[in-house]
Amino acid sequence: MPSPKKTLRLLMPQWQGGNNPIYHLGARLLYWLAPRGDAEFAEVPVAIPDGKQLPLEGGVIAKTAILAQNEAALSIIRTAQPDRIVTFGGDCSVSLAPFSYLASRYAGDVAVLWVDAHFDLTTSEVSSHAHGYPMLNLLGKGDAEFAAFAKKTRFPQNGSLTSASTKAQSPSVAAAPSKNLNPPCLRRPN
Fold first, then answer.
1. What CATH number does the domain containing 160 carry?
2. How confident is the model at residue 188 (pLDDT cuts 50, 70, 90)?
3. DSSP H or E run through 183
4. Which 3-state string (H, E, C) describes 44-103?
5. Is 152 exposed, middle or buried (0-12, 13-18, 19+ CB in 10 A)?
6. Which residue from 137, 170, 178, 101 is spatially nearest to 17, judged by alpha carbons?
7. Which of the pair, 159 or 128, is modelled with greater confidence?
8. pTM, full prediction
9. Span 99-107, mean pLDDT?
10. What angle do CA 74, 141, 132 make, to 5 degrees?
11. CA–CA gap between residue 102 and residue 92 (Å, rounded)
12. Tens digit of pLDDT for each residue in 119-128?
């Protein structure tokens, strides 16, 4: 009989990537609402929004905090050694550590289906909000310190990106393996 798969429920109420304090509360609400099951729980330490303006660092708002929180998440995940991860997070940049770990755990035999309102393929040249970077970073491209999460693992250079947006976020979209599926494309034929 195969051993049961270990699941980690990871609460990462990171809000700085979108510079939107409500993401902190949203992550906690999602965690509270989701069925518990028998999964192990861990929380990534994230500063509670205090109303102060976040610093702009190298073209990225709160870059130091976001990178530190992702490193903390990766450390927590590596210690737990889960087979699966359910992440309750604020902004999209919370995906860096879980996807990086899973790509390493499964030796690159990982597929990512990214369904979002936008592609998350931007860089600091286009936006100061890191929540728009993670898919490009997971392909090992974009801002070097964020892309390093993919370079530490064998993340696959293929995947499927699905976006409700009909316009590209940045020139980097053309460099990534992607397809823009807007709502009319998703309709079933009659």
1. 3.40.800.10
2. very low
3. helix 183-186
4. CCCCCCCCCCCCEECCEECHHHHHHHHHHHHHHHHHHCCCEEEEEECCHHHHHHHHHHHH
5. middle
6. 137
7. 128
8. 0.81
9. 87
10. 75
11. 17
12. 788 888 889 9
Residue 2 lies in a domain: no
Residues 6+ apart with CB under 8 A from 136: 120, 121, 122, 123, 142, 147, 172, 176
Where does residue 42 rank: exposed (0-12), middle (13-18), buried (19+ CB within 10 A)? middle
| Assigned token pair, 86 | 């359910």
- Name residue, tokens 């936008």: 118
* Residue at 135 is within a domain: yes
Give the residue numbers spanning the domain of 27.
Answer: 7-186
Helix (H, G, I), strand (E, B) or coil at 10: strand
Q: How far is CA 122 from CA 79, 100, 106, in A?
A: 31, 18, 27
Q: How far apart are CA 89 and CA 92, in angstroms?
A: 7
The yes-or-no verdict on residue 168 having pLDDT over 90 is no
Tokens read off for 69: 């929180």
Place of tokens 């737990």: 80
Our count of domains for the chain comes to: 1
- Report, as an integer, the average pLDDT of 160-167: 52
CB atoms inside a 10 Å sphere around CB 109: 10
In a domain, 1, yes or no: no
Q: Contact 117/166 with Cβ under 8 angstroms?
A: no
For residue 106, tell me if it sits in a domain.
yes
